[in-house]
Amino acid sequence: MLLVVLVLLLPSVSDACGDPPRFETMRLRGAPKPRYGPGERVQYDCRLGFKPIIPLRPRSAVCEDDNTWSALEEACTRKSCPNLGDPVNGQVYFVNGSVLFGSQAHFVCNQGFYLIGARILYCEISENNVNWNDDSPICEKILCSTPGNIKNGRFTVYKDEYQYNEIVIYMCDPSNGPDEYSLVGESTLICVDYDRWSSDPPECKVVKCDYPVVEHGMILSGFRRKFYYKAQVVFKCNQGFYLHGSSTIVCNANSVWEPKLPTCTKVPVAVPTEPSTTHASGPRPNTTTVPSSTGLHPATTATSSHTAYVSPTVDLEPEYFEDFGIILVINNLAL
Ligand SMILES: *[C@@H]1O[C@H](CO)[C@@H](O)[C@H](O)[C@H]1NC(C)=O
Ligand SMILES: *[C@@H]1O[C@H](CO)[C@@H](O)[C@H](O)[C@H]1NC(C)=O
Fold first, then answer.
1. Residue 126: which H helix or E strand, with range?
2. What is the tens place of the pLDDT at every residue in 216-260?
3. pLDDT score of 307 more than 90
4. Could you give the angle at the alpha carbon of 233 between the alpha carbons of 232 and 234, nearest 5°?
5. What distance in Å separates the CA atoms of residue 299 and residue 276, rounded to the nearest whole number?
6. Residues of the signal sequence (predicted)?
7. Rounded distance, CA 204 to CA 155, Å?
């Protein structure tokens, strides 16, 4: 029993100091020893990238009689990198608020200029001192070279070199065939960065969609002889027919109508299943998506005599209510 207690006490009664204290800014001079006895002294040096604080502070500690190290504070501080000025046509930002070892310098060029070199410099150890890891970058004027030529078209103004934000405008040539060229893409390109235009040049080509025919329907607007790029057509179903799909279609760059042509049928579009006697303006279930201007009700005009179609879901003009209010009341009473 006594033996066990003695063994447990052994480490604390050992006549030696523990490992010398560690510091952020200083390192032990020489190799650490396995044990330090009372009276032994350890010396510290500033770590790389650090220099002594002025006025000088003690940089050594002694193992005292009670086997603890004498008090010692950090005695070194970060070295500074040389100051950096703003580049011509740009700015430098010291994001850590200093040029001390470990800090960064970020460079930004003014609008219309682009950066050549390192965008970020680091204050690092260099030989026995600290320095920026690279030269400051420079800010060079943004210029664009001539944009690409296109088939069946041209652009103005033609130059060898363009300034930042300068534009060129493309247009299509008149065609020799029966159909004119359509310009597909952007007609205007802007010089936005070093040798970079805002987009690729457009294309000039014949884009022509087939004459759109919808059975039991008619073209409400957009009628013309030929349907070129971006031509838009709006359909309406004949009286008594319901429209399925989108009433508006557009001729796309591949000479295809988009979305596809609607159809007109005698069968109504799937109508919400809620009881038709309740509110017409309430939220509808998401079971069917009914594009705007498609027929929820047959293509009858408000003034037609088909009062049988009148139901609370029909959007009636105010005048219509005034004209037919009595009839509606009578109808409802009759039901
Ligand atoms: C300096 O600032 C950068 C960016 O905010 C950060 O990532 C980095 O850790 C900072 N360095 C020091 C030494 O504080
Ligand atoms: C119905 O559609 C709307 C809009 O598309 C959506 O915000 C809502 O969450 C949908 N409701 C259900 C029940 O799916």
1. strand 120-126
2. 999 999 999 999 999 999 999 999 999 999 999 999 999 999 999
3. no
4. 130
5. 19
6. 1-16
7. 12
Q: How far is the CA of 8 from the centre of ligand 1 (A)?
A: 47
Answer whether 257's CB lies under 8 Å from 250's CB: yes
Lowest mean pLDDT among 66-80, 115-129, 211-225, 292-306: 292-306
- What average pLDDT is seen over the chain? 84
Q: What pTM value is reported for the model? A: 0.61
Q: Which domains does the chain have, with CATH numbers?
A: 16-78 (2.10.70.10), 90-141 (2.10.70.10), 146-205 (2.10.70.10), 208-265 (2.10.70.10), 307-335 (no CATH)
Query: 20: how many CB neighbours lie within 10 A of its CB?
Result: 20
Q: How far, in Å, is the centroid of ligand 1 from the Cα of 143? A: 34
Nearest CA to ligand 1 atom 12: 103
Closest protein CA for atom 14 of ligand 1: 96
Ligand 1, pocket residues at CB < 6 Å: 95-96, 102-104
